[in-house]
Design a protein that fits this description.
Layout (H helix, E strand, L loop, with lengths): L9 H11 L3 E2 L1 E6 L5 E6 L2 E6 L2 E8 L10 H9 L1 E6 L5 H6 L10 H4 L4 E2 L8 E2 L4 E13 L2 E13 L4 E2 L4 E2 L1 H4 L2 E3 L6 E3 L12 H7 L2
Antiparallel strand pairs: 1-13, 2-3, 2-6, 4-5, 5-10, 6-9, 7-8, 9-10, 11-12, 13-14
This protein binds flavin mononucleotide.
């Protein structure tokens, strides 16, 4: 089957892309408004884009409806310029999902989800204390494209629970972290527990030998 995304409605593009670009990491983003109120929400249109400099990208769609109202996360980042990406692991998956609930204005998602916060090292918004790793970010750019905002954040500080880091590398013990990934939409996720594949890179010399 073929789909022409230049003419298809936005929900067709959404369904195809979230099904095909998967699994996706999940950023549980903490941000602050200009009055210091903390907001938390998950985003799976998320990845790191480069490491020199260290940049992550997040795609935030405006709230559903005709008028282009940004989600609190995108608005806070534009106004205060800082945010924290909390890494979502199996043990905080349910809490992360509660943070996506459209609570009325003024209700704290962090509190509703039974999560707590801990101060960040460099930026004002706190990290989620229950998350085992967090990336502190400063807004580099927000691009407004149609009904979406693409946020590029420069990572300025990284927190990882000691037990998940091999300080020599430093390497993240990803097999032990049990991060989860987003599959499609509609409440579908993938585990990474006992799911690792190791496929070493093949230098051309070796490849040639095995093909001669
Ligand atoms: C796992 C998961 C991933 C999500 N990913 C995105 C995303 O990439 N972009 C987006 O706009 N909304 C995404 N959402 C929906 C937002 O989390 C939701 O709209 C949230 O209420 C926004 O909160 P805010 O207004 O406090 O920023 C996702 C929800 C879940 C549960």
């Amino acid at each position: 089957m073929r789909f022409d995304l230049e003419t298809a409605p936005a929900n067709v593009a959404y369904k195809l892309l979230v099904g095909l670009v998967a699994p996706r990491p999940i950023a549980l983003i903490t941000s602050m408004d200009e009055h210091g109120r903390i907001n938390a929400a998950p985003f799976s249109a998320y990845n790191y884009l480069c490491t020199d400099p260290p940049i992550v990208g997040i795609g935030v769609t405006d709230r559903p409806g005709e008028d282009r109202v940004p989600k609190d996360t995108a608005r806070n980042i534009r106004r205060t310029g800082e945010f924290v990406v909390n890494v979502v692991t199996e043990d905080i998956a349910e809490q992360m999902n509660i943070c996506a609930t459209d609570f009325p204005h003024g209700v704290s998602e962090v509190e509703m989800a039974g999560l707590t916060t801990a101060p960040s090292q460099v930026v004002k918004p706190p990290r989620i204390a229950e998350a085992h790793a967090a990336l502190e970010c400063r807004e580099h750019t927000t691009m407004e494209i149609g009904r979406s905002r693409i946020i590029l954040g420069r990572v300025v500080s990284v927190y990882v629970d000691d037990r998940f880091i091999d300080a020599e590398g430093p390497y993240v013990k990803a097999e032990e972290l049990h991060a989860i990934g987003r599959m499609n939409g509609l409440g579908n996720y993938a585990r990474t527990r006992d799911a690792f594949l190791v496929i070493p890179r093949v230098p051309y010399k070796e490849w040639k030998k095995s093909h001669s």
